[in-house]
Amino acid sequence: MLIFAAGVALMALALLSPLDAIAEEYLLSGHMLQHVLIGDAAAALIVLGVRGPLVFFLLPRSATLRLGRLAPLRAVIRFLLRPQVSFAFWALSLALWHIPRACEYALTHPVVHDLEHASFVFTGVLVWTQLIDPARRRALQRGGRLAFAVILFACGQVLADVLVFSFDPLYGAYAAQDERLLGLSALADQRLAGVVMMAEQLLTLGTCITLLLLGAHREAAGRDGRATAAGQGYGVSP
Question: Is residue 238 part of a domain?
Answer without folding.
Answer: no
